[in-house]
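Good morning N.,

You mentioned wanting to compare the apo and holo forms, so I went ahead and generated the holo version with zinc ion. This is what I fed in:
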Amino acid sequence: MTITRRLFLKNSALGLALYGLDRLPLPEAGYYSAEDFAKVPKIDTHFHLDVPNNAFPDLALSMKFHLVSVNVDAGFPLKEQFEVVKTMKQRYPGQMDFLGTFPVDKFGQKSFIKDTIAYIDTNLQAGALGFKVWKNIGMVLKNDQGRFVMIDDPALAPIFSYLEKKGVPVMGHLGEPKNCWLPENEITLPADKRYYTRHPEYHMYKHPEAPTYEQQIMARRNLLNRHPRLKYVGTHLASLEWSVEEIALDLDRYPRMMVDVAARMDHLQYQSAQDKDRVRRFLIRYQDRVMYGSDTTIDHQNSESKATLDILLKKWKTDWAYLATDSLIIEKLKVGDKEMQVSGLKLPREVMDKIYRKNARQFFGIK
Ligand SMILES: [Zn+2]
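and this is what came out, ligand included:
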């Protein structure tokens, strides 16, 4: 291209002044703004679209979000969950993906491993990017001696060896936030308090017979020790949400492990409200290991309400503003009798691109 005088002027300081552009605020090259949310391609790696409803993927598309819908061994029948994600993947080619899961209700039966691997293969043939394992392993499932089955149980090992050998990603929701083992009045965050009030069956403080928090974390570490090549993402910040330093230690210990922030953004905010630099430094240092996920569930109960779309969009935008900008996000985060202000972390563009897209593309092989 010939550099004309006109173009040269336009690109020089003098040119900016001549064209009156010097009075316009220039975009900050190194950072995204709140408005960039709708323009930047993103992946929500932890979504539960449990009904074949188009409104939510359409909203995602309009906001440049690629959705990964995750099947879970809970709620409604797995066969139906599988049908929904298969249908939606076909309906939105190249714009939606899914993670399968496998049932564990036949655990201990003779054909369990064979049937599970067959079920995994069926999911892979339908395009599953990986598989989720859930907290029912470690908190609900028991063996025939009445003991809790943990994720490192040797009887499950052939399944993980199979996934490891095939290079298939595994998303593990193992254990719970540390708050789950605390009495109600010591639970730090309001969302956790609400959840355990509503679900006393999962409030482990009330179930001292069940494995401890430490046992849950150790079982997951054993799994990764025994399957060092397993592609593993510890969802919900690998249940180490209460301390970015603890997450960092495990990411160092397990160099192939990833984490996602799904449904634990409030724990990052709680820590950054006390020391912003601490959380910011963590995300910059581990920029190749963290993925975005919202953990939104769309089901029969909420899919028909327009408010659900607004709630989802608001959550997506708030999360983006928290990570990308330094604006005020929460005026009063109530923790115990304290009220804290949360402002954004203003992560550099490259870090945002990795957390919101590049890491997931690489880890899950999304094109
Ligand atoms: Zn989830």
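The two ends are 33 Å apart (CA to CA).

Happy to go through it together on a call whenever suits you.

Best,
F.
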